[in-house]
Amino acid sequence: MPRQVVFIMTDTTRKDMLGCYGDSRMQTPNLDRLADQGLRYEQAYCCQPVCGPARSALFTGTFPHSNGVFSNNLPLGDNVKTLGQRLSDNGIQAAFTGKWHLDGGDYFGLGRCPDGWDSAVWYDMHNYLEELSVEERLRSRKSETAYDETWGSEMTYAHRVSDKAIGYLAEHEGEDFFLAVSYDEPHGPFICPPPFNTMYDGFSFEDNPTFHDTLDAKPMLQRLWSGDDLTKSPEALHAPSKMLSLYLGCNSFVDHQIGRVLNEVYRLAPDALVIFTSDHGDMLGSHRLQAKNAAFYKEITNIPFIVKPGRGHEGNQQVVVHHPASHIDVTPTVLDYFGIPLPKLLEGTSMLRQFENPEVRINEQVYCEFTRYEVDHDGFGGLQMMRSVTDGRHKLTINLMDSDELYDLASDPHEVVNLIHDAQYAALRNRLHDLLLEHMDQSRDVFRGYQWVARPWRGDRSASWQNSGKTRQRENEEYESRQWDYDTGLPMESAVRGKKLYDVKK
């Protein structure tokens, strides 16, 4: 039996934008069907709620702070290897069609296939725009084009990405491969043909406590981010709008395009492991916020994650996984599936055991971060430093230059009540804080330091100039020679060791 993986992702799909996550008004029959054949994760998180950084974690198995893409439009480090490179170097065909956003170019990319991926299938948004005339390019960036009768499905990026994927499946039937299908939709400008362009006219999300959050006990960055929404009524925050209608219509349209690909998967690669997710979500007025930024709210970080294991799923009944999961685990999972030893520098773990037995807990906690949104924009708050952790029940967020947050998801699933100064939660808060600080050290977070320790609510732990006092060298020995010890000039004996200071004898 061939070993095949089809990885499908969208851009800016919230978990509650799929019918299988509970809202029957969402018309996503193809992804709902996929969920019925396997696992649907309730507590899956991206590693940073921004396009490029989120993708960097997915396709390298390292956090944005490790691979260099801690903001949009920054490239991966020269010695950072992608999943495609690791697979192809081990004899597994790797193909990628769709949005990449990891080459340091602008939103559309540079149009060049990275090492390790099949250049015949490569099709980023730069390639798409090259196919269009100047006039068509202008139309492709306007939401009004969704109502243009001359702009059919075949003119959309989603349709052409699907065509590439379908062609690849037909050409490589019966072979080992990894195929990534990465849609820009439903990200704006939300272009979708009939009937999708009017399918959600008049739609509004149901009222919930997030629309009533005054942000009084929240970080200043959130109040600044909210802008005029800070003074709007809850009714106005979730009122129907043409933008929301097109957004959700485009979401159903991309589900339709995914369905075209899945139908070929079911026909040509029925035993393939299929994974679906999104890079991040959108606030859409929750907590008086729009789009995404430095926050750990579920609307932007708790993304959809659906898995059809590489075997038939008996009973046609989806299994819901409530354990915490993370995008950081995708690369090690795929490598493990193909029998490739996991490199030491990967910062996640394989999920295969959980796919086979959903009762298995892979992660005791998962982590999320934020460092910058757009390197080429002056706005969006500029520099924001955030590190977060959740154990599935509680969420702690450290906003380095602002106030911090703690939420109890059992008593407050909408994350309205900030418990950071609540004495009853002090022990739990401090435990999560310690785990977060340890994670920053272990993952060689380039932005780590005593400032993350010295929080006004943490009186039992002192900050130190030396932090943990360790030095932590990189271990990428599948591709690099063993790094040399600064103090000896010889190959290091241990990657993690006590940091020596100059010792000059008098």
From TrEMBL:
Record protein name field: Sulfatase
Keyword Metal-binding: yes
Entry keywords, A to Z: Hydrolase, Metal-binding
Originating species: Sphaerochaeta globosa (strain ATCC BAA-1886 / DSM 22777 / Buddy) (Spirochaeta sp. (strain Buddy))
Residues spanning the signal sequence: none
GO molecular function: metal ion binding; sulfuric ester hydrolase activity
GO cellular component: cytoplasm
Residue ranges of coiled coil: none
Domain Sulfatase N-terminal: 4-340
Sequence similarity: Belongs to the sulfatase family.
UniProt region (Disordered), positions on chain: 461-481
Domain of life: Bacteria
Pfam families registered for this protein in UniProt: Sulfatase
Biased composition (Basic and acidic residues): 472-481
